[in-house]
Amino acid sequence: MADRDDVLGAAQRLLNADPTASMAAVAEAVGISRATLHRHFDSREALLVELGTRSLDRWEQRLDEAEEQALEAGEDPGRLRAVLEELVLAYVDDSDAFAFALTDHVILANAALVERTQVLADREAALVAAAQEAGVLRRDLPLRWFGHVTYGLLVAAREAVRIGDIAPRDAGRLVLSSLLAGVGAP
Amino acid sequence: MADRDDVLGAAQRLLNADPTASMAAVAEAVGISRATLHRHFDSREALLVELGTRSLDRWEQRLDEAEEQALEAGEDPGRLRAVLEELVLAYVDDSDAFAFALTDHVILANAALVERTQVLADREAALVAAAQEAGVLRRDLPLRWFGHVTYGLLVAAREAVRIGDIAPRDAGRLVLSSLLAGVGAP
Question: Which domain of life does this protein belong to (chains A, B) (predicted)?
Fold first, then answer.
């Protein structure tokens, strides 16, 4: 008997491969009837919102870890840079599992998820402020821009992997290097 | 009487504001009946594919211009860099109009659009190769990665503008500067 976690796991894998998959297709992928699926989630939107919630849970967990490390790093530029690099590489790992959720229009428009996203983005911006202060990140860019660029590069890497332009194992290095140093010649 | 262009223009504006808008909502935004809308486009997918086609038409136009300028620039690094900068700034302008199409899952999955995207991406990669050769772009990155990063930054800028984190007038400068130099301190 498929429990809620099984349903969510199978739905996520299917939606990553086909973001427009219907509830009927999700039920088939899980191996349950459409009626059973509807007992778990009464609409496609409810299912998407739950998947969006899980991706924010993961983001929050990563920020918890990074904030703890940043506290230990104090104002040491090398250690703060390492904290940020580890955070971005963790995002790249996570974005593979939560791929479709990055750009799903239903998830991006859900009020509760949007509100929580803002809270997490502010926590991330506090880490960026410390890194700017320590000379690790450019000070001429808006605090919240770092998060947007990181998000954009996660979307880019997912798309590049999906169509076969880069190897999955190269995604972390390419995202991190492009984020920090850009693609222009030094 | 609304013609096809009026319908497409109104649909594009509505979908940029609400990417999940239904055909009924599109008809209302255009000011026509649903039956009339269906005479223009027999499904929501057909409408989205037409909008995706228009965004690729624009991309192709921008590449035509850039290739002509690159031909004149020859191997001059300064001029090649200017060509790329102008191209990216043009993309930022265009992405405001075609915003939702950047990440629409129906558009991204359409076989004809995907095939045409690959052809255009290869033309862009040829410009990147010339710029790498002239020392304008990093040579340690895959040719097609430049296009992916640019795409990711367009998605990032659109999202940052949409939620009010950056001013629309700053989008071009932020995208270009982050693309070429990254967000890390030099």
Answer: Bacteria
Whether A186 is in a domain gets the answer no
Write out the residue range of the structural domain in which residue B2 sits: 1-42
Claim to verify: residue A70 and residue A144 sit in the same structural domain: yes
Measured between beta carbons, the chain A residues lying within 8 angstroms of B133 are: none
pLDDT of A106-163, one tens digit each?
Answer: 898 899 999 999 999 999 999 999 999 999 999 999 999 999 999 999 999 999 998 9
What ipTM goes with this model?
A: 0.92
Summarised one tens digit per residue, pLDDT across range A15-73 is 998 888 999 999 999 999 999 999 999 999 999 999 999 999 999 999 999 999 999 99
Same domain assignment for residues B96 and B148: yes
> Is-contact B49 B113, C-beta < 8 A?
yes
Question: Is A53 found in the same domain as A74?
Answer: yes
Q: Is residue B186 part of a domain?
A: no
Structurally, chain B folds into a number of domains equal to 2
Spell out the alpha helix ranges (H) of chain A.
4-17, 23-30, 34-40, 44-73, 77-97, 105-109, 111-133, 145-162, 171-181
Q: Which of B152, B159, B166 is facing A156, going by the closest CB pair?
A: B152
Kindly state whether A115 is in contact with chain B, defined as any CB-CB distance less than 8 angstroms: no
Three-state DSSP class for residue B135? coil
Contact between A20 and B156 using a beta-carbon 8 Å cutoff: no
Nearest residue, CB atoms, B148 vs list A105, A160, A182: A160
